[in-house]
Design a protein that fits this description.
Lipoprotein, about 230 residues, 5 helices
């Protein structure tokens, strides 16, 4: 009786091991804790100094220009920060790592582009502009290409899921001037952006650019560094 029980127990263990071994591997795992990023953490005092420098050297210029082009005389308050919740950042990292793995490339860096929403209620494609006139930023992951880091999007080209450089022009042949660790296959180098490119039209292209954060002028009661009206 004990022998039968032991055999059943071992059988269940084997079944469970087979089940878990067949599961898809996760595409994103938390990195081991290794302390703060070397040379990338600044003190609160330095952050305050940099914040104040922007307030003195950039905010008045932005405000003066925006006020000068407003027909109704309304006053413009420049954006001082943008924020994402932590869950969104984690989801974004998992997303771009998953897409990069499908295209068989490595993500090199994340670029944070300063930008501006148009003074309009809608974008040309009809999407609503959440923050007309407001300063913003968007995030572009990069890959290694021709000895440089370049921003990319993803596109199915001749049945091959391909990382496509955003900046550039022309169409290169498969495998031409590529190196290991750089994308293989057809590469369409689109200017940032060429209006006829599939990425700008949303035709079969997959974007990995993050935007639409919560952007905020200084709150009336001040932000972390004392900004406010």
């Amino acid at each position: 009786m004990k022998t039968q029980t032991a055999q059943r127990f071992l059988f269940l263990i084997c079944i469970n091991l087979m089940f878990f071994s067949c599961q898809e591997p996760t595409t994103h795992t938390e990195p081991p804790y290794e302390g703060p990023p070397k040379d990338n953490i600044i003190t609160v005092e330095r952050a305050r100094e940099m914040y104040d420098a922007y307030a003195q050297r950039r905010v008045p210029i932005i405000q003066k220009y925006e006020d000068s082009i407003t027909a109704d005389g309304s006053k413009f308050t420049p954006t001082r920060y943008a924020e994402y919740d932590l869950a969104t950042i984690k989801q974004y990292i998992a997303y771009i790592e998953y897409e990069a793995k499908k295209a068989e490339i490595d993500i090199q860096t994340l670029r944070f582009y300063l930008s501006n929403y148009p003074n309009s209620d809608k974008f040309p494609n009809g999407d609503a502009v959440k923050y007309p006139r407001r300063n913003s930023l968007f995030v572009v992951p990069t890959m290694a290409y021709d000895g440089k880091n370049v921003g990319f999007y993803l596109e199915d080209i001749d049945g091959v899921y391909t990382a496509v450089p955003i900046n550039g022009n022309g169409l290169r042949d498969k495998g031409e001037n590529t190196t290991p660790n750089e994308p293989q296959g057809s590469v369409n180098e689109a200017g940032f952006f060429i209006s006829t490119n599939a990425a700008t039209q949303g035709m079969g292209a997959t974007s990995v650019i993050l935007n639409d954060s919560s952007i905020t002028p200084p709150p009336a009661n001040g932000d972390d560094f004392g900004g406010g009206n």
